[in-house]
Write a structure and sequence with these properties.
Blueprint: H1 18-22, H2 25-60, H3 64-68, H4 70-140, E1 144-148, E2 154-157, H5 159-164, H6 170-176, H7 188-199, E3 203-211, E4 217-229, E5 232-241, H8 243-293, H9 302-332, E6 340-343, H10 345-362, E7 366-370, E8 377-381, H11 382-398, E9 405-412, E10 418-424, H12 431-437, H13 447-451, H14 458-468, E11 472-478, E12 482-489, E13 494-495
Parallel strand pairs: 7-9
Antiparallel strand pairs: 1-2, 1-5, 3-4, 4-5, 6-8, 8-13, 9-10, 10-12, 11-12
Helix pairs in contact: 2-4, 8-9, 9-14, 10-11, 11-14
């Protein structure tokens, strides 16, 4: 309910007019009084003249002029009375106009006051609605909300905050005052740091370990800000439980530490065993080759020669596997450094093509390379680049049936990147098998793969060596159609030829 002041009835405020001002009531009274005085003056003058002439003229003698002045005196008195009446009426009219103005001002003030009262009523209702919304938000929020004094006294809290700290309801929490003596934080230094940060302004995402009502330890993420209400200072804070996330993070950290330890142990083991493995393996391969080739004369039994050939081939395969594993371990451990030089890709490709030519001929394949004569040089490690191209060409030859083709091309794009492509008309792969082929020891089952067994490290090692140069390996394949492997080296590794 709002108070309402009744509005007085006022005449309409008409605009002033010149004729209205001239022919006002005081003017008419003045004219009327003046005319009346003239009439009385005329009548009095006629009567006094007659009286003086016929009756008193002889008796008064020289004093007769006093009697003659009586009409003039009457005229003067009439005019004064008329003037007084005009002044009185004018003052009355002025006072009336002033009262009208005051009444109009009061009416305007009353309207203004009513507007203000209505505005304040609307503001009060809006404030009440806003407070109710804030209270609903405060009570039904999905995170804990509280208001705390700088001393640690809890002034207010919602239901979620009580649940986080193990209380049945906010009233129980406020009664217990869990942090009034600083016993809620597991680490007292964290408590001091928290309140110090709150005192300087807003604080977000502060993780701390707290005690609950039943002395369980939980991890929470807190945010808060300073509130100044006159001379009263407090902190409004939000909090949510991150115990499960924290435990998961700790588990991940422990798992990573264990994995790093296992990886270091593997690298150390492989590094220490590389010499011990290679030395006897080289002896086995060497002696098997001597027997296989019968360098010191006939063996006597052809079956022994076949056994020696099998021992030699198995030793070569095992040595290749050991070398690949050692290379992968070095790259994964970040210990594989590049011995970089400026390389002529045309010479590198020709050298690699000579290495794989015999295998391609054995598989009855047509293998070619198309390298532009003006192809820029590449800054990289010669051994690694040769190993990359050898692995990819060997794979292409290995998985291409008789009569197929293998093509190697190279070019420079508009961005200055060098692309080396190896295309084959082999058995190809299904899209879901590509990720398997790029996984260490991942092998795709096929007739050709069973006929030509491998370690499953060729593509992963190739990819790792390319990435070590800052490049990328792209692989597109269609089952029973063929495969296109694209090596892309960054522009900063391309060295332009000088004329």
């Amino acid at each position: 309910m709002t108070g309402h002041i009744p509005r007085p009835s006022l005449p309409p405020d008409k605009p002033p007019r010149l004729i209205g001002r001239i022919f006002s009531l005081p003017f008419f009274v003045a004219i009327l009084g003046f005319l009346l005085s003239l009439i009385l003056f005329y009548l009095a003058r006629q009567d006094v003249a007659f009286f003086v002439a016929h009756r008193l003229g002889e008796k008064l003698g020289s004093f007769s002029f006093l009697v003659v002045g009586i009409p003039y005196l009457g005229l003067f008195i009439g005019l004064m009375l008329t003037l007084a009446l005009v002044v009185y009426l004018r003052m009355t009219q002025t006072r009336s106009a002033h009262m009208t103005d005051m009444a109009r001002s009061l009416q305007q003030a009353n309207e203004e006051l009513n507007h203000r009262i209505a505005d304040e009523a609307r503001m009060a209702r809006a404030l009440q609605v806003s407070e109710q919304r804030y209270r609903d938000l405060f009570e039904n929020a999905g995170i804990g909300i509280c208001q705390v004094a700088p001393t640690g006294e809890w002034l207010n809290a919602n239901r979620v905050m009580a649940d986080i700290l193990g209380y049945k309801n906010p009233q129980e929490l406020l009664t217990d005052q869990p942090d009034y003596h600083g016993q809620m934080f597991v680490d007292k230094d964290e408590r001091r740091e928290w309140f110090k940060r709150l005192s300087t302004g807003n604080q977000r995402e502060y993780a701390a370990e707290l005690f609950t009502k039943d002395h369980r330890r939980i991890w929470v993420n807190m945010s808060g800000h300073l509130i100044q209400d006159g001379n009263r200072t407090s902190f409004e804070c939000t909090m949510y439980d991150i115990t499960e996330r924290r435990q998961a993070e700790l588990a991940l950290i422990q798992a990573k530490e264990q994995a790093d330890f296992a990886n270091r142990s593997k690298s150390e083991f492989l590094a220490n065993m590389s010499h011990e493995l290679r030395t006897p393996l080289n002896a086995i391969i060497g002696f098997a080759e001597i027997i296989k080739d019968q360098l010191f004369g006939p063996v006597g039994q052809s079956q022994y020669t076949e056994y020696a050939r099998d021992i030699h081939d198995s030793g070569e395969l095992l040595l290749s596997l050991i070398n690949d594993i050692l290379d992968m371990s070095k790259i994964e451990a970040g210990k594989r450094a590049l011995a970089e030089a400026v390389l002529n890709m045309e010479h590198i490709v020709q050298s690699v093509m000579r290495l794989v030519a015999s295998r391609a001929k054995l598989g009855k394949l047509h293998i070619t390379a198309q390298i532009p004569k003006d192809l820029p040089f590449l800054r990289g490690e010669e051994k690694a680049i040769k190993q990359i191209l050898t692995n990819l060409l060997t794979n292409a030859i290995k998985f291409t049936p008789e009569g197929g083709t293998v093509l190697l091309t190279a070019d420079i794009d508009s961005m200055g990147h060098m692309h080396v492509k190896i295309e084959d008309t082999g058995i190809g792969m299904a899209p879901e098998d590509i990720s398997v082929a790029l996984t260490p020891f991942g092998q795709i089952e096929s007739v050709l793969s069973r006929r030509n067994p491998g370690t499953g490290l060729g593509l992963p090692l190739t990819k790792a060596l390319i990435e070590l140069h800052g490049g990328t390996l792209g692989l597109k394949s269609i089952l029973d159609k063929g495969t296109i492997v694209t090596i892309t080296f960054p522009a900063e590794r391309v060295v332009r030829r000088t004329v």
